[in-house]
Amino acid sequence: MLPPDTRPLHRWTRVLFWLNLAVEIGIVLTGGLVRLTGSGLGCPDWPQCVPGSLTPVAAQGSWHKYVEFGNRTLTGLVSFVAVALIVAVVVEQRVYGRRKKLVAPLLGVLAGIALQAIVGGISVHLKLNPWIVATHFLGSMVLVWASAWLVWRSREGEGAPVPVVRREVRALGWVIAALTGVVLLLGTLVTGAGPHSGDANAPARLGVEPRTMAWLHADAVMLYCGLIIGMVLAVRLLATSPRTRRAWTVVLSVVVLQGVVGYTQYFLGVPAALVLIHMLLASLLVVAVTWAVLSLRERAEV
């Protein structure tokens, strides 16, 4: 029998780590649906949907209220999964005496969910100010990153991290991670300048020319792709772990697919369906980059 601190996590705990990541990506997509269908003010109040009611009322008329309320409801599901995961990890800690360092990050995720709900409420009260909406999306990306980190970390040992590549390669990995944030930021500015403002009646947009922002975003992505190609070559030549090589190949694959979707939506006039796919791929890119950077070192059991 394995000693207590090296036993694997219970199967249901592992499922909860994956479920936590899935619902964080899911709320990004429902938030995208809110914006793309012009339902951002379907519930014109917050935390209530309309003054005097937490839920939509028939007098509101439009179907937009159901889209917006559905996204708000999913916040409750995301919170429930995070709480369930915290409970599961605490039980694992008490029964098996391991994973003590995962409770604090999970509490951080739960706090981030609460903060995101507040930012969403602020965006409603400010009539979908595009800067606040962009902040809301980037906050969701941070939660996706944290959830992806937790999935990876939950499968590792408790030993000290051991690099599997040279220091210069690890540094390039961190540069790519930072540039991922820049690319996401520019992508939100493209959306804020474009046609999908979130409100069908009174669109709120950034005061910049959409074409200019789109090409600035594309230029950053080209640099990003070049660095990732360099990283793929570096890990193929220098990495001692095949997992590292696979992880960075996945990153390159997601980026290429994201680029194809991005250019296609641009030349087709930014159709809503492609924008939603673009948002999904953005979430998957955050996951892939997170895991790829983490794959640059290994942790053994203690």
From TrEMBL:
InterPro entries: COX15/CtaA_fam, COX15/CtaA_HemeA_synthase. One of its GO terms (molecular function) is metal ion binding. The chain crosses the membrane at residues 12-34, 73-91, 103-125, 131-152, 172-194, 214-235, 247-266, 272-294. The keyword Transit peptide does not apply. One of its GO terms (cellular component) is membrane. Keywords: Cell membrane, Disulfide bond, Heme biosynthesis, Iron, Membrane, Metal-binding, Oxidoreductase, Transmembrane, Transmembrane helix. Pfam families: COX15-CtaA. It is a multi-pass membrane protein. The keyword Magnesium does not apply. Pathway: Porphyrin-containing compound metabolism. One of its GO terms (biological process) is heme A biosynthetic process. It comes from the Bacteria. It is found in: Membrane. This is Heme A synthase. It comes from Metallococcus carri.
